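Support request, please re-run this one:
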Amino acid sequence: MAKLKLTKNELKKQKDALKMFKRYLPTLMLKKQQLQAEIRSVELRVKELRAEKTRMDESFKSWIAVFGERNVFTPGLLKITKLLASEGNIAGVPIPVFKGAEFEVEPYSLILKPLWLDAAVESMKKVLLIDLEAETMEEQQRRLERELRTTTQRVNLFEKVKIPECKRNIKKIQVYLGDEQTAAVVRGKISKRAMERVAS
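Re-run finished. Output below.
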């Protein structure tokens, strides 16, 4: 750390820095609170999506055996062709926003395939949409948590290091300058008396 200069210029610099830290600290604290609230909201949404996926998986269990029928549900039957997402912003953090997905269903014979296949394809689309949205929300959460760590570090830096350091420096400079001023007055009085003695 650079040695503290005990001058009026340094005093002004320290006071300006203190003012700046005190001005930005509330903004950082507000950002921290906003990020915490958003993270809780995202966590809640991910839990809802996972619970919905679990409910759908349970409903599949009653008719999952039919998926095993020969040549009915083939691997290429349902494909995701396009993921629809956009870029959002929360507290200055760019985040992905899930908008949906486009699917391609391989054409199949309505006569040769069982009746339940249409319902199965629609259910699979719903499950895939839930998974894709949950993944997007988890990415949002990762980005928000990373920004929260950075913001918390800045809040702590300002609160626990920079502001107290500036206050100590200001006090130290003020004491030194006060002592210097007192010493100058005393020297002035001594010089004045000495000159008066010499003159008389």
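The chain has a mean pLDDT of 88. The radius of gyration is 35 Å.
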